[in-house]
Amino acid sequence: MRLGARIFKTGLAIILALYAANWVGLEPSFFAGLTAGLTIQPSIYRTYQRVLHQIQANLIGAVLAVIFGLTFGHEPFVIGVVAMISIAIILRLGLDSSTIPVTLVTIVIIMGNSPDENYLLFASSRFALIMLGVFSAFIVNLVFLPPKYESKLYDQIFNTTVNAARWIRLTTRHESNIQSRREDLEESNDKLVDMDQLYLFFKEERSYLRRNKFAKARKVVLFREMLTATKKLMGILNRLDQHENEFYNLPDQTQRLIQQQLDRLTNYHERILARYSGEVNTQMTGWMAEEVDEGNESLLELFKESYDHKKDGREEWLSLLLFVSYIIEYNEQLDHLDRLVDSFFNYHQDD
């Protein structure tokens, strides 16, 4: 069992909230701990946004709880009505819907088992407990283990790219085990969803220095295009998997051309990623670029020849069209990504 950063931070937030509640003399302290556990977020920016929304949502719930409690009492029916009205107002104001659970906790602990006397003081102490938990989560997320989404995202992109390239090399050489490939392909497709989420977290992270803001903005664009390139590579692998028989029915020369061009492009792709991480200092060499261009020309020439004779082999032409179009799109995306990486290092050599 692995303790992730978010699990660790959740535990720390609960501990801090419980100790803080005991220190200031607010009881029962477990309300603060409960709120801290519900409020922790995966990124600093999201925690900041959540705190702002949570303060507003809790105020709405607390004010309604006090007004209805003083006016109509504390019957379960009244508590339910307050909860419904609070949810409606929160959604109407466009506040984050994730604030609703803590707001409901606020309403219940203010209206449930409340004393007949000093009701306002009781409600204030309960509200203070909830807000103590919210701020404890914010402090922990701000101070302890700030998430490094850039490195996590890069590692996932690089590993997924290398893995997809390996399966493409094996499949185009008729050497892959179908069951193993499909199991790995399903796992890799799931990782694409995780990478989209990591990219969103990375994009939300804020830089406070002007110089860093420009570098961060460029990195956001870079990682978006890295993701796109990896998705296009995964698209080729998915097409090979789905149309494996059509690929194997192509003439040997055609298969060899596709195989060689995919080898060049996956090497090109890995080189771009390695250059971003600092493992490679230069762009693709002249002879490598010539090989990629010649490979594209050969594929296009072959496609034209196949088109001229498509009446004799329409299925072969359609299969070739499928593979050539994906390869050309992938190549164009790699060229675009390569230019972006080159531009990034021209302006931000130290980042």
Structure, explained:
- The structure is a single chain.
- This protein has 351 residues and is an all-alpha fold.
- The chain folds into 2 domains: 5-143, no CATH class; 149-347, Methane Monooxygenase Hydroxylase, Chain G, domain 1.
- The chain is built from 13 helices and no strands.
- It has helices at residues 5-24, 30-39, 44-72, 76-92, 100-111, 119-143, 149-172, 178-204, 210-242, 244-248, 252-277, 286-308, 314-347.
- α3 (44-72) crosses α4, α11 packs parallel to α13 (314-347) and α12 (286-308) packs antiparallel against α13.
- The protein is elongated.
- Its main location: membrane.
- The chain crosses the membrane at residues 12-31, 119-144.
- It holds the Pfam family ArAE_1.
- It is a multi-pass membrane protein.
- It is found in: Cell membrane.
Give the topology string: H per helix, E per strand.
HHHHHHHHHHHHH
CATH architecture of the largest domain: Up-down Bundle
State mean pLDDT (0 to 100 scale).
Answer: 82
Number of structural units classed as domains: 2
Our Rg estimate from Cα atoms comes to 29 Å
Fourth-level CATH superfamily of the largest domain: Phosphate transport system protein phou homolog 2, domain 2
Q: Main beta sheet: strand number and arrangement? A: none
CATH top level class name of the largest domain: Mainly Alpha
- Tally of extended strands? 0
Low-confidence stretches: none
> Rough shape?
elongated
